[in-house]
Amino acid sequence: MPNAMPTLAHRTDLNQHFIFSAAIKILSEQGLSIAIGEFKELMDRSNDGSGYSFVDLAADFAGVEFAIAATSASSAISVQNILAGEPDEHLFFPSIEGLPEGLSKGGFSQKFTEVDSPEYLKMVQSINQRIADLPIHQAR
């Protein structure tokens, strides 16, 4: 039994988002993995939820992209070589700095209107770019 729970960005919940999204990707299609992550965050906006979190969404997206890179014939060996070096989450997990989280339904609607608004899509693009810039994705 480990002495401490594994973390990403010093949080135990993000490793769960990452791992579950990677597993779902391996077992299904990418679109389903991302849709599940976004749906969960939309549900978290309710009064008894933790609020919409772009941090959690970044962990979900990063898990999906990790699964793709780690299982792709064109990049799997490179990913393994990168990860075989000094352990560092910054090789496969994006910075979460400045990503909004804990947004209530009203707070989300006020800032992002809905999930296909330009503001929301810009935030998603920012997350995707952070992930694309990670060392394990440079091998693709």
List keywords for this structure.
mainly alpha; 6 helices; globular
Average per-residue pLDDT, rounded, comes to: 83
Number of helices: 6
Largest β-sheet summary: none
Helix and strand succession?
A: HHHHHH
Name the beta content range: under 5%
**Percentage of helical residues?**
55-70%
Kindly report how far apart the N and C termini lie. Answer: 36 Å
Structural class: mainly alpha
In one word, what is the shape? globular
Query: How much is the radius of gyration in Å?
Result: 15 Å
Question: Runs with pLDDT <50, length 5+?
Answer: none
Beta strands, count: 0
Q: How would you describe what is shown here?
A:
The structure is a single chain. The longest helix has 18 residues. With 140 residues, the protein is mainly alpha-helical. The chain contains six helices and no strands. It is globular and about 45 Å long.
SSE blueprint and pairings:
Blueprint (H helix, E strand, L loop, with lengths): L11 H16 L2 H14 L10 H18 L4 H9 L20 H8 L5 H15 L8
Helix pairs in contact: 1-2, 1-3, 2-3, 3-6
Quickly describe the structure:
The chain is mainly α and 140 residues long. Helices cover 57% and strands 0% of the residues.
